[in-house]
Amino acid sequence: MQKRKKFLATENLNRLAKWLRILGYDTMILKNASFAKVRNVAQKERRIYLTRSSKEAKSPHRFSRLLLKSDNFQKQLCELSSILEYDQEKAFTRCPLCNRQLLKIEPCKIKSRIPKYVFENFQEFRYCRKCGRIFWQGSHYHKMKNMLKEIIDKDKQHPIL
Fold first, then answer.
1. For residue range 125-145, what is the model confidence (pLDDT) as tens digits?
2. Which helix (H) or strand (E) covers residue 150, if one does?
3. Alpha-carbon span 5 to 156, nearest angstrom
4. Which of the 8 DSSP states describes residue 94?
5. Residue 44: which of 64, 26, 30, 27 has the closest Cα?
6. What ranges do the domains of the chain cover?
7. Hey, which bits of the chain come out as E strands?
8. Could you tell me how many helices (H) and strands (E) the chain has, helices first?
């Protein structure tokens, strides 16, 4: 079984990192880190370094990295679509802000922290142990899921001959 890709993104790719996490990819961002530190972390943890800097992308150092051309997260996801997959089991399992694995939690344990309507209409909840955010599959979930599937599966459905 092939191990799932892990990413390390530059700070100017925060929005892309959020969406990679929503897809279930472990995506780290190092704040105020030197290129040498980023390179070392990428090598040590076997992460693909994502950058918009051509200077960093063309550096002679040997480690896995990709240069992204667009400044739009949806176009960036398209640029990465050949190495990404939409896996229903892995999507929506990471905190989009903290990158931590989300844990399932019983509704009764969070009743006071969520709106009454949400408590009454949803049965499955996940939370982030680090930031304390709570997630459920509301209408935003379905919109995000459809957008991601369309972007990731687009190139795979219509291969260039």
1. 999 999 999 999 998 999 999
2. helix 139-157
3. 18
4. B
5. 64
6. 6-80, 103-157
7. 6-9, 26-29, 48-51, 65-67, 103-105, 125-127, 134-135
8. 7, 7
